[in-house]
Fold each of these.
Amino acid sequence: MFMVGDGDLVIPGQLIGENVSCLDNCFMENNRVYSMVFGMVRINGRVVRVIPSLGVYTPKRDDLVIGVIINVMEGSWIVDINSPYLCRMRGEEVTKDVMNKNLSKYYDVGDRISAKISFVNEVNSCEITGPWKLIDGVIINVNPKRIPRVVGKRRSMLEILKKKTNCNIVVGQNGRIWVRSDNFDNVKLAINAIKRIEREAQSSGLTDRIEKMLENARRS
Amino acid sequence: MVKQDMKLIVDGKRLDGRRFDELREIKMSVGVLNRTNGSAYVEWGKNKILAGVHGPRELHPKYLRDPTKAVLTCTYNMAPFSVDERKKPGPDRRSVEISKVISEALGHVAVLEKYPNTGIDVFVEVLQADAGTRCASIVAASLAMANSGMPMRDMISACAAGKIDGEIVLDLMKEEDNFGECDLPVAISPRRKEIVLLQMDGKLTREEFKKAYRLAIDGAMRVYDMQKKTLIESMKIEE
């Protein structure tokens, strides 16, 4: 039996239901399920999960992230991925002769890359693979917990953003979004739309509203 | 506590006109600071408290890291202009004590195991003080933690009760705190009604203690309802 409805907001420790199953961000105590974060309840049959409205990024395997090189080491790079945990990228990603080559020739401090997380251990230390240097463009930060809304169901929101603004957009699961276009007005429009998505992430009918906003902006 | 000749109850009412079981006016808001992960501002009577949460973030120096959980640190600070006579800036015995009790109260409910090797810093700044700042600080810190998205098993709410002119009353203000007979701040985790802070300054009989404790719990539950309303409404404003 559920005490709250699908889409309701809950706070930490709030009772969600009795004799139901729980998945993410909730916990069970004496057959009762309570929320562990401040967020929105999602109910699917007898299974409940809570989508947090805010929070930091915790690395997960196979996530695409946008990182900034913060240190070049002997044989590897240290990458900031907008998380409490720093990330390591092996030199073997770019050259076989790691020890004899200066790695800063490939990626130097301050360079921005998109890459996939290849390994995460039990204390969340991680490694990334498949770097792709991001040249030009603008990187904006949004709350990592609102990234699923920027991407949308089956990437619907992202496709609308790309189509209506003519921008190249790479969305990192860590809350960083890279936007690039030859026309800077398009970049500004995309950034405004993304910021609006972040602000209104908890509301329904957002895809339609964003589509309308972008169409109006292009017309004017 | 120093007893002085000051009538704190006149015609069955307290100096500010409140009933014995009445809270001061409380205003709360969250997400007030842009540079923090979570923040809250609480006005509790004449108390004005600002709390901010940084983290989970990399913890330095490295030897302080715990590979099994995050390290939670709270810093309580009173601004020099928060009290009538200028307070000397910097930590003192009292602020170190309150920082410790707030850290322990929050550590009781926060799911620190989710973020091993990291540090979470909670900063509580008292901008204006008028008795009961430790309860208001715990409430603000708890709101800021929830606002930061930190996993918690429960919120923390708090309220003080005390004895003035031989009567047990709820939520003491400055004059009542200074000239009353006893002050009993209580913080609880409302879901299981577990005590996470209980201090007593003054003397109470066993019966008086029970009455004051019940009154403080009742007050804390009312504060919890306000916390819940504040958090839920903060999200509705964004829509």
Note: Residues 206-238 of chain B form the longest helix (33 residues).
Amino acid sequence: MIVVQVSMKLEMKDSPGQLVAALKPMSDVGGNIIAVIHQRDPDATDDTLNVQIVLELPEGRLDDLVTMLKKQGVHIQRIGEERLLYQRTVILIGHLMHTDLSDTVDRIDSTGFAEVSELSMSMPAVNERSSSRLTIKSVTKDDMEDAVAILRTVAKEKDLLLIEPLEEIL
Amino acid sequence: MKVAIIGFGSVGRGVAEMIAKKDLGISVTGLADSKSGCIDPAGIDLFRVLEKKKKSGCCGDRNISALDVIKKAPYDALIDVTPTNAMTGEPGLGYVTQAIKKKKHIVTSNKGPIALAYKELRALAEKNGVALRYEATVGGAIPIFHTLGHGLAGNEILAVFGVLNGTCNYILTRMADEGLTYEQALLEAREMGYAEADPSYDVEGIDAAIKLVILANTIWGNGVKLDDVDRTGINLLTPDAMRLAEEEDCTVRLIAEAIPKKGFLRVAPRIIEKSNPLVVDGTLNAITIETDMAKEITLIGRGAGSIETASAILGDLLFIRDRYVERS
């Protein structure tokens, strides 16, 4: 999946519920809010609120978001430069702890071109196989392919089952 | 049109029953199971043979073999519905070869001969001027080869993706929906009659890989074999993994995938968005074809069952009748 990271500066009425109303469309388009920077200007005399938001959203949804925000009465002062990110989620099953999970993650992180940005894990019982979900991010598609190739090698080495997403159909 | 049926298991009986019940202008002049056979140039009384098989376990005379039927009965097309042997292709491969050499058209549901010897059989059929059709080998009732060969004629096929094994899809559906372990879901599949006593052929992805080989050979004529398929089964999946996929609005399905340009030929459990049309429930099969003109087309249908398979076989037979037999 391709995600777009973008920062936007919004202006809205400084009244209860306005910020929530502005954030809701972001989750509606499948966005992931990275940061909300909300500084009240002590000298401000008007009743407006300026908020800067950094979010990631699926490619192609930015126009939808802009439309939805406008409908909410939010004024978009500025949209920063879009930064493309490739994101892929995989599942690993096996003896993840016994085979040094931090090494597994580090094999991706140490490349410098891709990183594991999220890890969810469940461990049923000491001797049973555990399952984890890893989200990998990279700047280019080739970097992503290389990162997943590394993970395939690691999985083979450590006897883990790697489940890749079906990405080819778009 | 006159046909001979070799194999009288559930698929063979389903075909016989449908030919008997429907007025399709098809008469069966030869019939054989593994132990016996019968030949009647005037047309076999199928209801009587079905009854006899039910009572005695035999369809005919023990002195008449399948090869006798293939060599001596008067027929236009041979229906091979013998069981699949992925290693040798026999006995189907020998039967089909014999019949082609006698210039008979072939309709088969047997994956073995097509997966093992597609190129040789195709060449032999062309040399003898007969049709070789095998709609029932992949996707059960889904008319995948008719779609590829006729409806999508002129398209360049870029990729094919499929849920080709109903047993695996049933197990994965139950694991995802009910949080069952693999072992529990397999046990349930057995009780429902969807899984064999030895399920390895299904759950290790061998069956799906054989079907992928047949698809790839048909579409691209690339001569790939079962050993060329990168294959991972579903037997090591955990309920936790299903839940982790679910949290992302995804699920896990056994997907057969061929993309020649990327060098992909593989069968493996994959994370797939639940909104993808390939995510079908229970024992259903689904196939997505990606082409240059039509883009994506997905066919969904029943992947097994005697009457469902008979549907694919009759489709092939009637195609042969219209294309070859009535003209000559």
Note: Residues 37 and 68 of chain B are 8 Å apart (CA to CA).
